[in-house]
Records
---
Amino acid sequence: MASVAGRAAASTRDAFPPLPRAVVQSFYRRMRAVAPAAVGAIERDRAADAERAFADTACGRLARSLDDAGLRALGMWTHHWCMRFYDDDTRVGRRLVREIAVRSGLGWTADEVRWMLRESVWAGPAAAERFTLPRAAAAQLPPEERPFGELRPGHWPESEPAEGQRTADPVEGHPTGTEPDRPAQSDPSAEATSGRAGGGEPTGRIAGAMALVPRQRRAG
């Protein structure tokens, strides 16, 4: 599988009405603020004992150091990373996403949920747990503000198989048999960021925190 970063998004771009540019750029500014610490925490936890309690992990310590707005930014960045590099080992990132998802009272906004849902739709059903955080964040909104009703038919999160129903690789935890039906393309910046050496197998290292915010969206 190839990273979703190089995949043409034209087929899913209209899943939601476009967000105002100023709103999207504010999201990226907030995510860039937490990205370096998030990359460091994820790398340390990928090299450590996976059985440790979350509170004892680098990601857990990072989460404790942030206020509600910082936690939302960390959740959005980690969700983006898991969706963009679903074909790499994202277990540490997905654990962080799950931990943020169960936090109540973080002050999620409808536009933050829309942005995360768009990332989920672009990734396709091969990305494990792609609706975990946007679904949890939407549940904290007033019912009339929840944007799931804005998704076009065919992009409903309710149509996703439960995690226990996925066919997963026992080593990497990646679902199989759920490839998105969009053509994959290579993106040099994506391969460098996901830790690939010479376009080959993942090296397990995350490089270039700022590159995880796609170049075409970093203007401003």
---
Amino acid sequence: MVRTIVAAALVLGQVALASADDKQEIGKDRCLFDVKLCPGGEEYNIVDKYDHLKEALEKGASVYTPEELIHLKKSQKSTEETLTLLGIGCH
């Protein structure tokens, strides 16, 4: 009986940890970090990428780590520069 309770507690603890890890991933746009994680394996076009970066940065620290936010800000700046060079501008 005690072994059953201990085993159940261990399993429930692992489920709780997995749920906490999964929760950290909810709302993150992983395609902005690695093209292999994009839907269908295709990278966003530059205008869509800018839009996705803007949305991700609006979510801020409630979804992304400080390191991820730094990466997103750098990527947004680079994307803005490219859009300007192409004469598209940001919308």
---
Amino acid sequence: MTTGRRRPGRTAEDTGPDPAGAPPPLDGRCAALLGELAADARVLGWSEGVHLRTEYLTARNAVVRHLVEWHAVRAIAAETNFALSRPTDAYIRGLGPDEPTPAAVIGMWSWSRTPLPDNRALLRWLRRHNTTLHPARHVRFYGLEMYGTAPEEPGGAPRHTVLDDPVDRPHAAHLHRLRVEHRASGGDHRDLAVRDAAQYLTLQEVARRHPDGRILLFEQVEHLDRRVTGSLGAHLARQELGRFRAVGAVWRDGDPTVRYPLGRYRDLSRRLHDLTKAGPADAADAPAPLTGSAGSVVFDLRPWQPTTADKSPAARPDAPLVDTATAFDAVLYTPTLSPAGHIR
């Protein structure tokens, strides 16, 4: 890690050389920013702008590692099917073979038709990390979705396996009933408010199971946006589960590899591009590099939040930052994206 402190309870083995494939350490300034956000957060959201991009998955892996090692994250929840995520959770708890099965890897993001190597690498690291902990303190993984099965929505519920935790089965059955009812009424996975209501239901269950420690969410940016009606972020903004902090994500406007529209994030992307190229006059306001590679940076949006933002005419160029600061506490900007690899 880039900090000089050793977290209480870390062993000499924990601080030794990283094994091959381990998530990269965060840049020191990015680590400090995440530490400030995590300090008072019960739930911390980390976004990707679009799916299946190497840079977002690399960023996620580095953030997961940092928050697990240094900030008492005990549960990781993601935009993946709850029932299909149970082999993933079983694997990182040390159950089953040493190498993750395709089901365990796909369960980390069940929308994918094939397993992703970035997901496999993170699962290996989480399993290795959990071997240093008492089972009661293991990091756990949960999918939040009632949708999210690949390659197509099957008619029946996923079959249980010997590795399933029996306490998961009633909730998996409940989500399956909700999905069947929603599809029978003509709905599908594009109904964000319905999907995210089910995700919030699952997150409440995760919070109940983990009354101590922090919960880390990994979602596509719109799901964590407090401004989007019915989104998971809007539910969490009520703070019924405790303080919610979130980091958004955008990509460069005009990136030829992305067909998904920037939409409401276009002006923000353009402003972040300008700030990244020009560099701020005050070095203290400089964006924090993520891992020292790939050009990804994290902008702290807290100076533009309503209690501190400058409302004078001079602040107009930063209007996209002021607007976005009502939704997120920071934002990840990635100027270059590349397709994620697949395990064949």
---
Amino acid sequence: MGANIGWGTPEAQLYQKALNAKALDDASTAATAGLLLNPVGGTAALLNGVSVTTGFGSAYLEGELINEAGEYGLSEVFQVGLESMLGKRTGTRVNTLLDLSGFHDKNTDFIPEDSKLIEDANTLISRDDDESK
């Protein structure tokens, strides 16, 4: 498999990057789903760590690191609120279901890709430099 792919070409490298991002995203989803079965304790901490780490790895490869940080922050805020209302075990399960349903992701879709944010920041910086002359 893959014997006829010229891995040195830019297209093949983009394809490989997309495959890696998808694999990390799938691992993150699987670890998150594991939290439904084991919402508290050492195993839950490990699953959460795997989910967060692989989620950020996938986001980095896809150029959506800032969006992922927003999604993680939103998820953490919901986690604290749900735990205070429902208890740790049920709060974690409800937040996990929200995460798996795409709720947190949909609420951070307005955040542009990293490249767009960097481009806008550079434009602002260069405009400020031009105005100060």
